[in-house]
Every structure is written in C-alpha cells, then in structure tokens.
What we know:
Strand content of chain A: under 5%
Low-confidence stretches of chain A: 295-300
Strand content of chain B: 25-35%
Strand order of the largest sheet of chain B: 6-7-8-3-9-10
Shape of chain B: globular
Distance between the termini of chain B: 37 Å
Low-confidence stretches of chain B: none
Structural class of chain A: mainly alpha
Order of helices and strands of chain B: EEEHEEHEHHHEHEHEEHH
Mean pLDDT of chain A: 90
Oligomer: heterodimer
Order of helices and strands of chain A: HHHHEEHHHHHHH
Shape of chain A: globular
Number of helices of chain B: 9
Number of helices of chain A: 11
Mean pLDDT of chain B: 95
Largest interface: A-B, 21 and 26 residues
Amino acid sequence: MDSMNILSIFIQTLVGGIGIGSLYALVALGYSMIYRSMGLVNFAHGSIYMIGTYFGIIWYRGMVMGLQVPYPIAFVIGVLLNAILGLILERIFRPLANLDLMLMLLGTIGLGYVLDNLAVIIWGAEGFAVNSPLPNEPIVIGGVALLPQMLLLITGSALLMVGLNVFLAKAKIGKAMRAAAQDRETASAMGIPVNTTNALVFAIGAGLAAAAGILAAPIVYVNPAMSAAVGLKGFAAFILGGAGSIPGAIVGGLVFGILEAISAGFISSAYTKGIAFVVMILVLMVKPAGIVGEVTVDKV
Amino acid sequence: MIVVENLNTYYGHIHAVKGISFEVRQGEITALIGANGAGKSTTLKTICGLLHPREGSIALGGAPIHKLSADKVVGLGVGYVPEGRRVFPVLTVDENLDMGAYHRSDQAQVTKDKARMYETFPALKGREKQLAGSLSGGEQQMLAIARALMAKPKVLLMDEPSLGLAPLLVKRVFEIIAELNKQGMTILLSEQNARGALKIAHHGIVMETGKIRFADSAAALRANSVVQHAYLGAG
C-alpha cells in the first residue's frame, strides 16, 4: 500500500465520518434547541428521528397505497409530517418542561417507547434497505471514491444548518425564539407568545431529524431500532458540543461522526462505539461545558 | 388609565398581594413604595399579565385585562421594565429593541423609533451590535427602558429601575423617568428608593406586607411623619 493510497483512504474515511456526523449533528440540534427553550431533555428525540425517516421513506418506497413518490417530494412530505408530529408532541410535553428531572426523564423515555412500538406495529420490526435516488457508482476525484448519496447527505445537511442559523439570526420569529430561550418570562412580557415559539422549536427539531433520516436512509438500514442507535449518538453529540448550544450541536455531531469513522477504518469496527464514547468522556473531563463553551445564559 | 380593584395575587402559596385598590391616572407618575417583599413587584407582574389574580380586577382604559396573558396585555399598551433589568443577554442591543417592538407590524416606523432610542439613550449609541449581556448595569437599565418604550406603551410599569446602580446613575434614571413623564408618558413606578421616587411622582402608594398602608399625593407623603421615619430616613 503506497502513501498516496493511504491518504485517499483516509480522505474517504473522513468524508464518510463527516456524512454520518452531519446526521448526528442534525439530530443533536433537535435535542439542543428543545433543551434551550424548554429546559427539557427530550429522550424521545431518537424515536422522533426514526418516525420522521419512515414518514418520508414510506412514500419513496411506495408503501402508502402503492403510490411511488419521487425522492425530493417524499423528503418534503416526511419533513412536514414530522414537524406536525413535533407540534403535537410539544402539547404533550408542555406540562413536563421545567419539572423535576426524574419526571422529565420518565415522561420522554415513555413516549419514546410508545413511538417505537407504534412503528413496529405499523411498519414491522424487520426494516429494509433503501435504494439511493442517485447513481450507486462512486464519483472518483483524485483517487478518492465518494458515494453520490453521501455527498447529498453532506450538502443537504450543511444547507439545513446554514438555513437554521440564518433563520434564528434574521427572522423576527427566529429572534423571538432565541429571546424566549434566554428569558421566558421577560419574552412573554415583551409580547412574544412563548408557547408558540416553543411549539415551533419542537416542529423545527422534528423536521431536521426527519430530514437527516431521509437523507441518510439510502446509506444506513431503516428499522425501528435506529431510534436507539442514532438517538444515543445524537444525545452524545449534544452533550459533547455543549448542551443547549447550536454551534455546539453541529461541532459535537461532526466530531462524533469523524471519530467513529476513523476508529472503524483504522482500528476496528468492533470498537467504534467504545472509542467514540471514551473520547466523549475524556473531553467532558477536561471541558465539562462541552467543546463549544456557550455564552452563559442566566436563567433568573 | 389603570384601575385596580380588590386585587389578590398569590405567588406560589404566598398571599403576596392582599386586596389592594388604587388608580394610575393618565399623565402622572404613581410611585409604589415599600420594603422588599411588600408586594410591589407582584402587583406590577399582575398588571402586565405575568401573574393572574385570584380575586379582584384590573382595568386599562375601562376594559378588563386581568384574565389576559402577558403577550396580549403588551399589545394593549402596557410597557414593562422588569426588576433586575432582564435584558436578553445573548441578543444584541439592536435585537433587544426589536423584541420590545415584537407586537408591532409597522416595520418602517419601528426602524425610525429605534433610531430615536439611540438619540434618547446615548449610552446605547454605537453599541447596536454588542451583546446586551456585555453592557454595564447602567447601560442595561437604559436598554431595558428603551426596549419597553419600543412597544409604544400608553402606560409604563417600571420595577425597581434604580436598584443596584451607582448613585450618579440612580439620579440619571430618575431624571429620565421624569423626562418621559413630561413628554406625556403615564408611569407606575415601583421603588425601594422612596426619597427619589416621591421627588418625581405625583402620587404615592406605600405598601406593607401585601396591603396599602398610605395612598396620597407625593407631597403629602413626603410630609407624613410616619413615612418620613420609616421610608425617608428622617431621624
């Protein structure tokens, strides 16, 4: 194996890590936004991601009344349906926000189980592989072979993250969402309908999770158990980057994905999870607030 | 402008406001004075809709507002400057002002009003893009007042605006309040600094443990020996 070859394998592994990392980042963003706005750690978010994936892919695979829907349209339908699910879940979770941590934990975990079991009842526990709408032949650039679907996952995720940041920075309701996350009571006294902004946070979190799942579906295997696997890693990315931080969720997701890919590619795939979590624990021992030290928000 | 009748508000299990009635007259400064825990903040929070009374009523220009949520009350013309300033720390100065104008849809006029705020409060000028959390206490107080004014209120509720500020800034804040009133703003001012508040107010209400002890013209309260002794630090 010459050095050129090792380099191209490394780059290939890195791109794969960025792809899977983008998936974790989009899931971590949902945890982060909900935590910021409602003080709620939503352990059902992995299940919301899984349901969102099905909400899009069932149309693409013709599982709804035999209708075969093109991938981009299935993507939009899945994201919208999951955003609506997010709105409904916010109504259910509203009484839990700012309650005792144990109640929150039980409530969200319980709801996650309900969603997981509903998925098994409706779509079966078996799961399936999904064909990419793009060609399956890798694109070779300078000796580096990249799957078109992986490039779609990376660019799609990047666009969504940029879009989210622009929305939060520029849109009136986006600014209001940030204000409400910083000081709920004062926001409400300024005329911001805080229940509406919280519902929107939930809808966006669920929509991003669906987008991630539908973009990654042709690369990963789709089954109800994916809620636990990706839910846990998205949660780890949320903690690793800095709980409640938006850039933190993105950085945390990418770091986690890259670590996983490199340890699988160069050490052993048997240790993938272990190595990534060990690094997470090490980072938190050094920097308990996570990689991105978020500006402290005083919750008065 | 605001008529409060037999107001009873609980803060958790604590009966913080016990059947108070008073009026805030148009064009006047009404000062709500009393010690920490007397129920001043609870009264203000109940008027602006952050708390809801268990009994009693609040009317704004004749219409009842005590069942409305805070985000509706501000749209009817009640501006609020919270105790401890409570600017949004990780929003810029400019974004904080935008949030004050949240209920308004006249975007062009909002932009003009923001420009006017920077003229009225020179401490904020040139800091439009700075995070509000990085401002000094005095600057944050100016921002909190400017943010409340951005809502174009008919009446301004101010909760302890002088609290925690250096003496020179305390004087400046009272000057600003008097100036706003001269321009026609109706103000309900809650203050532990009774001396400063009664100097600029038309009317004063002295609260003790959730009840009204005295209510009179500011001049009469300044002359009242009990008030002098307990609140104005006279020997």
